[in-house]
Structures are given as structure tokens and as C-alpha cells.
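ASSEMBLY PREDICTION REQUEST
Request ID: AP-0331
Submitted by: J.K., bench scientist
Number of chains: two
Total residues: 573
Priority: normal
Notes: Please return the full assembly, not individual chains.
Input sequences:
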Amino acid sequence: MTRQLSSLEREEIRRKTTNNWLLSMPALALLLFAAAGPLVIVLIYSFLTAGSYGGVVWEYTTEAWFRVLFTRDIFDDTVSLSDAHLSIFWRSVQLSFMTTLICMFVGFPTAYYIATRPPTTRNIWLFLITIPFWTNLLIRTFAILELVRNKGVINNSLIGMGIISEPIKMLYTDLAILIGMTYVYLPLMVLPIYASMERFDFRFVEAGFDLYATRIKVLRKIILPIIKPGIIAGSILVFVPSLGAYVTPRILGGGKRMMIGNLIELQFGQGKNWPLGAALAVTMLFIVMIALIVYVRIIQKSENKNA
Amino acid sequence: MNKEFSVTYQFGFKQIALICFFALYAPILLLVFYSFNAGSNLMLWEGFSLRWYIEASENQLVQEAAMRSVIIAICASVISTFLATMAALGTTRTQPFKGQQIIFILINQPLMVPEIVTAVALLIFFAIIKNFTNYFGLGYLIAAHAAFCIPFAYLPIKARLDGMNLSLETAASDLYARPSMVFRRVTLPLLWPGIMAGAMLAFVISLDDVIITEFVKTPGQDTLPTYMLGQLRRTITPEINAISSILLAISLLVVTVFFLFTRKKY
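STATUS: Completed
Returned structure:
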């Protein structure tokens, strides 16, 4: 590309670029209006004063950001860390992390199994994974609700088998949220792992066996390193929506076991503290962006290694 | 083949996979099964009946919510597919151009930002607009749905375009077809399966949305999912199971058709 472009060619490129932008413009306009643009307003609101009946007063303050982590005593103004908020953050991170881990341990063998089926049946298995993926999140959470309640299927069958005599209380606990999120986000782990597994060349495995590797060694030293990008992609796809989960903890946690999403909603509802809600939303966005950047870094690194 | 000699065999993987499939389907199937329960207890089988389907279909709130869901989903999927098709035509099969990366990031932005964050952002933004315009109609919901449906419509259309090379269009141009003629007679017919697939994905995504709808709706603008979410606060009857099963059936139908449209040929 060292050759100088003629003015005619440059004109042609400029015309095409303008054309491409014009074609994309309507979609971008709608996205700026009803998706990306309003995020800026959230940032602005996080620096405003809360109105007494919801909404905001247009006065600059960092009070909302202060309240994300700290609380001020109403009587003597002593500042301390906000235990309620910290425990909700901690629960969110912990539950999202465990959800990701469980999904990984179940999702990888499942994706492996699908990818090693013959091409004709493989499509059917794949279809079976995608159906729950496109099923309403609310319906799937609701199905779990019916399983884990005190007189639900799990407790009834455990009592029926004589393993326990009293129903285990699962509904409205962290365990229920964990089961629900794992169930809801599992397909998000299987699909990207399957995508990288599908292109995997099993001649590498044959070579490994020829060199007297055991099955476990083949798995650890050959298969896992090659499909690592798929596993990382799946983990991000599970971790990000888990952290932002709202419906699942609301239904299965019953309003007592909150995650960050529910805390944000609370500020816009009963809490009537919009700036705090906005600050919490920006915080969540920030954590998600960090996760995405880490993801891109890892992917680039492994691409450089393979190249 | 004996598994001892199989290259792909790994200990326990098949069992985990089968348990995984069982665990994915058992809760949904139970939910559908109990929607045919004659009694009003959620988990106590009292015989087969269509009672809850009839009650759901006669419930006026459910009728209105269903109507609203379908109207929003149709408008949102038509708008988002139209815009996504234009954007896909502008961003695929072209030399890398200035700002292409920005377009990609903006289009995929709804997939990256947690829904709850977008939801509160829209709540704030639309509250401001409502203040100025005094308009409280379905327009807000349609705009919000159309926006977050764009990436879902865009992906299959882009995939289809990536797989089409420019030779047919070039051939048509060589035969003196005007650009509009090339588009109508060559590009559009080839692209059509991708457009249909995109529209169907957008339809299902819009139909199923809970969080953004819950925050953007004006009181009294319930869709089926937000109606169900509201019902979960009260005592739950199998009516919810019946509504869930119907929504499930619609999603299943659309996804199956989508699968047939995009299936790889062997």
C-alpha cells in the first residue's frame, strides 16, 4: 500500500465511506436515543441531589457516590462503611462467580459431548441447547421456583425417598438464587465452548495418544489449551448477566436476598433516591466494562500465541 | 466402536451432558404439565383439565397484556430489522473504513450493558421526555424494544451477507442493471432468509423482555411478562403456568422456524 492513491481513488473511498455511514445512521440514531445515549444521563444524575419524593434536584453533589460505600449516622454524623451495601456487593460477586464456575464444570463436558456427535445428530443436540436459551427468562425462573419451594418437587421426592424428614428451606435463600442463575445462564456457557470445540481437530488427540499420553493428560495438555478462548467467552457471557441479574434474585430471593440489580431498583422505587440508584448503576457498568476489557486482553494474547 | 479405542471418549462427559439436558428440560416440562392441572394447587395433581387456559383467555387483563405484547413485538421487530438490514449492508463486504469500529461497538452495545442499567437509564430519560411532551403512549416501549433488538436482528443478516460474495451483483451491473435493480433483483432475494431470521429473533427477544419493559412502561401498560411478574407477588394460581406455556409455545414455534431458516446444509 505504499503506492500513492490517485485523487480519483481517494474520491471513490470517501464516497463509499459516506455511503456506509448513511446506511448505518438510522440504526445508530435509534441506539443513541433509546440505549446508549441515556447512559450519559445516568452518569449526570449520579452527581445530583435526591428530591424528597423521587426524582432529582439540580444541585451538584457527590453525596450519592459517597453513599455507595459509606453511611452517615443520623445522630452524630459519624462515617462508617455501609454494611448493607457491602454485603449485597459481596453476595452478587460471590453468586456470579459460583454460577460461572458451576456452568463451566457442567457446560464444558456438555459442549464436548455435542461437538463429538456425528454431524447429523449434532444439529439436534445443538437445537436442544438453544431452545432453553430462547425461552423467556421469567418462565424459566418460575419453573425453578416451583421446584425449590417447600412443597416443591425436590423436597417432595427427597422426603419420598426417605432421605430427609423435614423439607429443606431453599426458597428465598442464596442457594435458590444460585440454582436459578445456573439454570438460566447455562446455555450461554455451552454455546461458545461448542463453537470453539466444533473446529477442534481430533488428530491432535490421536498424536497425543501415539505419544503415550493418558486421557486426562490429553484433556489437560491438548484440548483445554486450544479451546480456552471458548471457555473464557462463555465465562464472560455467564458472569456479566449474573452480576446484573434482577429477575432471578427478585423471584427466588423474595426481596430479602438482594443482588446489586435489586438494590438499584429499590433506589428508584421505595428508596426514592435516584442519584444513589444512578451511582450504583454506573458502578455496575464499570465492573462489567472491566470484565469485558480483561476478556478482550486474554483473547488477544492467546491469538498472538497461536499466530 | 468400543470406547477404549475411541479418540473422543472422556470419562464421565456423556453422563454429565445427559444430566445437563435432563436438568434443562425437566423444570420446563413440569411447568407445562401442571398447567393442565384441574385443581388450584400448584404441585398437587388433581386430574387433566383445560380450566386454567380457559380462565387465562377469559381474563381481561391477560387479553390486554397479550395484545400489547404482540403489538410491541411486531412494531419493534419490523423497525429493528429494517434498520439492522441497512446497517448490515453498510458495514459488510466493504473495505475497512473510518469509524467502522464505532458502528460495531454501538450496534452491539445492548448486548454488553446489563439490562438493569439500560432500564434505569431509560426510566430517567423518558421521565424527562414525558415531562416535556405529555405523551404517555406505547411509543416509548416500542422505541426501547426496537433499540435493544437491533443487535439480534443484525447478527444473522450480517452472517448471511458475509457468506454472499459480490460476484452476482457485479455480474448484474456488468449487464447494465441500475443499482436499484441490482438490489431488488439480486441482493434482496439472496439476503431474504437472513432478514427473516433476524426479524424472528427480534420478535422473540421483544416478546420475552421483562426488565426494560417493567421500568419503561407507564402504569397500566403491562405486557404478558410484566403481568406475570406482578402476579408472582400475590398467591400464584396455575393460570400463570397456562400463560407461561402459551408464551413458551410461541417462542418454540418461532425458534424452530428460525432454526430451519439458518440451518447449515450438509
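REVIEWER COMMENTS: Residues 60-91 of chain B form the longest helix (32 residues).
SIGN-OFF: pending second reviewer
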